[in-house]
Amino acid sequence: MKIGVTGATGQLGRLVIEGLKQKVAAETIVALVRNPAKAADLGVETRAFDYSQAETLAASLQGVDKLLLISGNEIGQRLPQHKAVIAAAKQAGVKQIVYTSLLHADSSPLSLTVEHLGTEVALKESGLTYTILRNGWYTENYTGSAKGAISAGAFIGNAGDGKIASAARADYAEAAVVVLAGEGHENKTYELAGDEAYTLTELAAEISKQTGKTVPYNNLTEAQYTDILKSFGLPEGLAKMLADSDTGASKGGLFDDSHVLSKLIGRPTTPLAEVVAKAIA
């Protein structure tokens, strides 16, 4: 059985490839990447795979039985890209697609949900066997700003007192590995989130505790936060998406207490303090 992983040189994809190599023979893994030269260090077969080159995808999927479709990063282009991958997978004889969606995609207040939900519908309509991994927020999405917050003297956002049940990227990668290398996950949807939830005030307090510096959380409006992110050099679309996601978090969009992720991977999710420590090291 061959397992294909799209976006294999991305942060999540690399972790999935490494995890799979512990569970299955390396020669059964196929890394599907936009730039094969960047995948030379993965130690598995690599094939060119660009979501936006629809006519080339089926050839790259020949012989793949299970496919991990890691959602693309071109917001606004993702649904047609994902549909192209699904169509190519069907054409190539792929038996199962595992897709990284968004936590509570059918009820989430985050605008990101539109493309994810559209992909889920396309997947179900394809007739292929599927597994949907509705990933919550990566803790690293927030801790990536920790060093900047320390030097600026404050952590900023617009999530208010929203509880965020995030998990480390490695936790979500492990869940994908469990599903790809295992059985019994056919046509299931998993709501995946961290075991512990926190507010951004509590995250700022953890950063303060670990650094010995007072780093408060400053809650902004969505427009203020968007403008500040743009001033940091972020593209407007990404800045708007991050601020919209914080607004969604303030409405409970990033909270879940079902512990499905820790049950799936057979261990507690990575504690917030551990991810903070890594970020500020």
What is the topological layout?
Blueprint lengths: L2 E4 L4 H13 L5 E5 L11 E4 L5 H7 L5 E4 L8 H15 L3 E7 L10 H14 L2 E7 L4 H4 L2 H7 L2 E3 L11 H13 L6 E5 L7 H12 L5 E3 L2 H10 L4 H15 L9 H6 L6 H9 L1
Parallel strand pairs: 1-2, 1-4, 2-3, 4-5, 5-6, 6-8, 7-9
Helix pairs in contact: 1-7, 2-3, 3-4, 8-12, 9-10
InterPro entries: NAD(P)-bd_dom_sf, NmrA-like, NmrA-type_oxidoreductase
Protein name: NmrA-like domain-containing protein
Pfam families: NmrA
Task: Tell me what the structure shows.
The protein is α/β, with parallel strands linked by helices and 281 residues long. It has 2 domains: 3-135, NAD(P)-binding Rossmann-like Domain (Rossmann fold), CATH 3.40.50; 136-168 and 193-256 and 270-281, Alpha-Beta Complex (UDP-galactose 4-epimerase, domain 1), CATH 3.90.25. 44% of the residues lie in helices and 15% in strands. A 7-stranded parallel beta sheet has the order 3-2-1-4-5-6-8, sandwiched between helices. The chain has a two-stranded parallel sheet with strand order 7-9. The termini are far apart. Residues 2-245 form the NmrA-like domain. It comes from Paludibacter propionicigenes (strain DSM 17365 / JCM 13257 / WB4). Pfam families: NmrA. This is NmrA-like domain-containing protein.
